[in-house]
Amino acid sequence: MISIRWVVVTGMSFLGLAAGALAAERTKKLEMPAIALQPMATWWETMLASREALVEQEVAAERQAEAQRLADPVLKAFQPLRTWVSNREGARKIRVRLAGTKQLYLGAAGHAEVFLADPQLIGADGQATALPLAKMRVTGGRGWANSKNVSEWGQKKYAEGVLIWEKEICIELDGRAEWLEGWVGVRGSKEDRRGEFWIHCRPQADVVAGRVAARQSLVDAVAEAFPSAGDSRQQLLDAWLDIWRADWKPGDLAELAGRYATACGPQQKQAAEDLAKRCKSIAELEAVRDLFCAQYAGPRLALARKTLEMVERAAPRPQLAAELAALERQFADTQGNSRGEALYLAACNLRRKIVLSHPGLDFPKLLINKRSGSLPEHQCLQYLGCHSEEAPGLVVLEDWKDRPRATVLLKDKLPPGATLHPDLSYDGRRVLFAFADHSRSPAPRFRAYFIGSSQSSVG
Predict the structure, then answer these.
(1) pTM, two decimal places
(2) Alpha helices in 357-416 (DSSP H)
(3) Taking 70 as the threshold, does the pLDDT of residue 92 lie above it?
(4) What Rg, from alpha-carbon coordinates, does the chain have?
(5) Burial of 200 by CB count in 10 Å (0-12 exposed, 13-18 middle, 19+ buried)?
(6) What's the pLDDT score for residue 264?
(7) Domains of the chain
(8) Are strands 430-437 and 417-424 parallel, antiparallel or unpaired?
(9) How confident is the model at residue 247 (pLDDT cuts 50, 70, 90)?
(10) Residue 39 DSSP class
């Protein structure tokens, strides 16, 4: 019989039970934007204020860049295009003033494969020539661009064009074209796809990538500032529903409220949409969020009831049963709509208490493997050391149910690297694991290591 029980957990599912206190820590840090977090009472108010401040900063930077363009005698007549397109809409005709520019930058970002079809250059004499796509070269982005299978892009038949996903290309021109015409749309997909498309006389890929990184930095900063299990759960839900992905005009709370209303269930949808249309204040946005959260309160209470039944097969929990019954009465009285967020969070927190009260979880320490948040999605590549990223690896959490305290086992014992598949011995005295040493050259490979419970050596 050993004195300390260790449980190996890989992934994120069980970490959510550890109060979410460590979920906000990121192994791979993105560069923070030049704007500070705007702290508010709640995580979503903080996200709202910070995001609007960031957009205002970006608008000021765009104005400065535009002023520089207008000061250029060659580029001042050029008319840049930046627009959002979706596969919900058909392709639309565009006409962009080129005014003799010699370098044309086309790019797309987001989840959609955006096409520019049948692009034509119009000269001062009105004569049309095809955009020389054969001269295109890549200037930035992580995706791709091609001109294959043009006829399959949309409902309309096109003769030629370019399809872009997360990429920017540049096309050299002779400087005689006055206009660019064509059709912009999103290639058909069974899922809703939305992307940003731009045409400019200067490269924009780094600008767009910087905006994406700044928004992710805000997400990470908010997660770190509001690390509780309830806040973390809501942040993940909002991210899954893309509530905060696209920008909105600063101060236009109706746009943001409309996204929550769209994600509401059938019982709350009509009321939420009516509120969203006239949303002008934080209090009104909060009311829409209450309706949004109310749809999850009932299922969460039902799950808590099933969880209690499971736990009580091992030991009675009269106090927790009474708390659950009280929440169920509140939900039955109001249907959770008037205080949906508070009721949803209370149900989540109570179920967590019920789960952690199980006698089988009565141990003081938890062994976890902290990996990078960026992993290959391929079923094979994720296991290759050459694709791994540095992370803390094996960590012991003490007081893991309420206020986790972390001890990194491999710190100063192994060089920087990545850990995979820890396996605890039956007596709880040794951990076998795979480790990729990132100080080795060439590409790192996973090799077998073990560490004893005394933590004095690694082999």
Answers:
(1) 0.71
(2) none
(3) yes
(4) 27
(5) buried
(6) 94
(7) 76-201 (2.60.120), 365-452 (no CATH)
(8) antiparallel
(9) confident
(10) -
